[in-house]
Amino acid sequence: MITLIAVSRLIPMKGNYRIMKNKLRNSNITKNRMRVALLLVLATSIIGLAPAFSSSARADYSINDVSGDYVWHAEGWAVGQGNSDNHPVPISAVGLITYTPATGTFHVDVIVRFNGTNSENLRDGTYTVDATGHGTMTWLSGAGDTRHIDFYIVNGGAELKWIDTDPPGSFELSAIGTMTKQ
Known about the structure:
- The protein is an alpha+beta fold.
- It folds into two domains: 4-53; 63-181, Quinohemoprotein amine dehydrogenase alpha subunit, domain 2 (Lipocalin).
- The chain is built from two helices and eight strands; from the N terminus they run ααββββββββ.
- It has helices at 4-10, 14-49, and strands at residues 68-79, 88-100, 105-114, 117-129, 134-140, 146-154, 159-164, 172-181.
- The chain has an eight-stranded antiparallel beta barrel with strand order 1-2-3-4-5-6-7-8.
- The radius of gyration is 32 Å and the shape is elongated.
């Protein structure tokens, strides 16, 4: 005995036609959504690669790309003076540095916190910048020691990221920082 439901499946009906038509339409919507999703993935990938081709990846820097006033910020470790075992102590600094590319010189006025004591430090020195954006700074410390910092230009010159590159046995064990253009 064939039930009424089974018979209705064999006879085409307007309702079933509409359901099938909607399924086809929904299939197209799904295909369109998939295309949109793939386009979004492609766009995101292209945007992700953009920094590799940005101005910060250029190779035509010069000393003129580092000029004017920057805020200096630093953190690191130094050899603790006055300690019997010269254990490392924290050091930090903040201040203003002015670069003059015409003479290749800089002037820095920073407040240094060393082992819990604050002091002002005024120094003058020289600097260089090569075509890759790598720069060096050299100056004499208060004790007359030659000091060195290496830096790279970042964000099109808006920042300089640096690291202390003094030779082993110097006062600072390790220090890093950022100089932000004003």
